[in-house]
């Protein structure tokens, strides 16, 4: 199945809406779209993750009042026990996805592209699905955080 960026963008938005609307069947179908990419898996996953990052970044920037040029965004990563976690201790695709989000938030488009390339460097259908799932989880968490913070 060949896919262009607009289809990956639509998949990203469908994933977000399925989670927000509590639509498990739609979520399963959207995730199957990712797995079914065959030879186009890497560019498709990259495009889906890029769109999820855009959605999350826009929500955070909107919540920050448009983020003035002198605003710097950072993350405080913690595990289930609320213990700090170093970004370097994360799996490479997760680390790259978080760094891509930070690069986007901080206005570093070239770094976003580099980190997205790293996030999809060695994908098979399972790791591709996991990369999308983690980006989706991060996006949903940020959307919920920004909505509850207003």
Describe what this molecule looks like in 3D.
67% of the residues lie in helices and 0% in strands. It is built from six helices and no strands. The protein has helices at residues 5-20, 24-35, 41-63, 92-105, 109-119, 125-148. Helix 3 crosses helix 4. It starts with a helix and ends with a helix.
Task: Chart the SSEs and their pairings.
Blueprint: H1 5-20, H2 24-35, H3 41-63, H4 92-105, H5 109-119, H6 125-148
Helix pairs in contact: 1-2, 1-3, 3-4, 3-6, 4-5
Mean pLDDT: 89
Largest sheet: none
Q: What class would the helix/strand composition place it in? A: mainly alpha
Please report which band the strand proportion falls in: under 5%, 5-15%, 15-25%, 25-35%, 35-45% or over 45%. under 5%
- Number of DSSP strands? 0
Q: Helix tally?
A: 6
Structural shape: globular
The overall number of domains is: 1
Strand and helix order:
HHHHHH
- In helices, the fraction of residues equals 55-70%
Distance between the termini: 41 Å
**Alpha-carbon Rg, integer:** 15 Å
- Uncertain runs with pLDDT below 50, 5 residues or more? none
Keywords:
150 residues, globular, mainly alpha
Quickly describe the structure.
By secondary structure, this protein is mainly α.
């Amino acid at each position: 199945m060949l896919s262009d960026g607009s289809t990956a963008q639509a998949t990203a938005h469908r994933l977000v809406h399925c989670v927000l609307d509590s639509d498990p069947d739609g979520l399963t179908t959207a995730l199957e779209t990712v797995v079914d990419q065959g030879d186009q898996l890497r560019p498709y996953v990259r495009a889906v993750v890029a769109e999820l990052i855009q959605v999350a970044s826009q929500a955070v920037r909107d919540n920050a009042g448009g983020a003035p040029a002198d605003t710097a965004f950072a993350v405080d990563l913690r595990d289930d026990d609320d213990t700090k976690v170093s970004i370097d201790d994360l799996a490479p695709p997760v680390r790259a996805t978080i760094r891509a989000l930070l690069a986007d938030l901080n206005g570093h488009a070239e770094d976003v592209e580099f980190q997205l390339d790293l996030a999809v460097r060695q994908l098979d259908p399972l790791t591709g699905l996991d990369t999308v799932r983690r980006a989706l989880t991060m996006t949903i968490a940020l959307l919920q955080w920004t909505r509850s913070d207003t």
